[in-house]
Give the backbone structure.
Amino acid sequence: MKRLTIKTKITLWFTALLAILLGVTYAVVLVANQQIIQKGIRDDLITVVTFNVDEVEYLTSLENTTDVDLYMSYGDGYLEIDDDFVTLVNEIYIALYESDGDLLYGQNPIASYTLDTPFTNNVIQTVKVNGTKYYVFDMKLTNRGLTDLWLRGVVSENQGGSTMSSLTYILLIALPLLMIGGIIGGYFIARRSLKPIEKVTESAKEIQEGNDLKKRIDVGKGKDEVHEMTDQFNEMLQRLDESFERERQFTMDISHELRTPISVILSQCELSLEDDQSKKEYKEALETIQRQGEKMSKMINDSLDSVRIELTPEKYPLEEVDLSTLIINACVGMQKLKDRGISLTYDIAPDIKINGNDSLLTRLVNNLVSNAYRYGKENGHIEVTLKEVDQSIVLEVKDDGIGISKEQQEKIFDRFYQVDSSRTNSGVGLGLSMVKDIMSFHNGKVEVESELDIGSTFICTFNK
Ligand code: ADP
């Protein structure tokens, strides 16, 4: 069976709900309406019969009579039936009876059926005639001189038929029309609301087919749930795109960087294999090959480390780290280098703790300090400080080395960027990019202040 779309499901659901509502409304309205109408009919019956009570009088003689009224002999005197006596009004029939059931005046359309209905004063009785219910209401006449006389009013339950049918008519026509309007309106609203979802599906298909992560889903302006979902979807695409872009860049960078040491190794091998060489020349060639091999190994290891921080941050759990002690330990270790007469001093505020990763933070300090040694001048000086400033913790590594020009300062944090690779044999241009990654992993940032030939200061700021 074909699966139902959300649109169809919503429409069907509302149709069913409206149909049930309509049915219940019909039932309630009709029952209520029926009861009100029936009560009205009974009240009218009572009113008309009661009205007639005073229209029948007993006269001892026929003196002073008028032409308009009706007279008939009754016991020793006469009965006067006023011309106001109503025999039929609004389908209500009234008749004057004697106690023994003789009809003296008026009308009763179901007279033959009410023969067995005893006169009962002031009570409404019901009689069924051919499936139709009739209300029968009797009143005993008690005016002066009157005995054994009854007024009987009769009316059918269908008296209000016309009122009933007009209401039924309105209900029958208007409510289904409203229901159809509701269903059509609901269908269009559902269709309109779900349109953006179709667009999302289309875009996802296009992205999949065209392999184009630059595409974004456009569902126009709006603030509903679908727009929110689309925003999230676009944000996800943006991140995916950036992440693929970074990966692509990384692969390009590393292949580019590996090309130089590989070509050095290959040319050394070629040269050595071409002619017989002296032992010294072979040794030199092998040393070059070894250096390039080490460089490649460092490059690969460092690259993998920087990728790991990004891709598997769970491998670097955060815990409370005593930053003061960590930096002092790193500095004490580095002091032992005594490289080219460069000295290292530190001024570390005690007991500064942050939520961080011990091994990454050690690496950060090592990278900065080893750069300060590497690019320091002979007999120069390195100063490491740690202090709290307002809401931040600031680590500074300052040297009086060769410095970095303004233009280069922007680029030194890029992966594999080296100002001048001939300045260092051991570096591969990943130290500072790692520092940057470690700082952003700790929600902090790194900046540099430097002047050529004067020295550089690397400033790492952690938010408290
Ligand atoms: P490298 O492996 O080349 O040291 P880094 O990423 O650590 O790579 O540094 C990038 C470049 O920034 C270096 O090639 C160097 O020219 C420059 N640099 C880094 N630290 C300093 C410093 N303290 N003084 C001067 N130049 C520096």
Remarks:
- Residues 371-372, 375, 399, 401-404, 412, 417-419, 423-424, 427-433, 456 surround adenosine-5'-diphosphate (CB under 6 Å).
- The chain has a mean pLDDT of 88.
- The chain has eight helices and 16 strands.
- The longest strand covers residues 132-140.
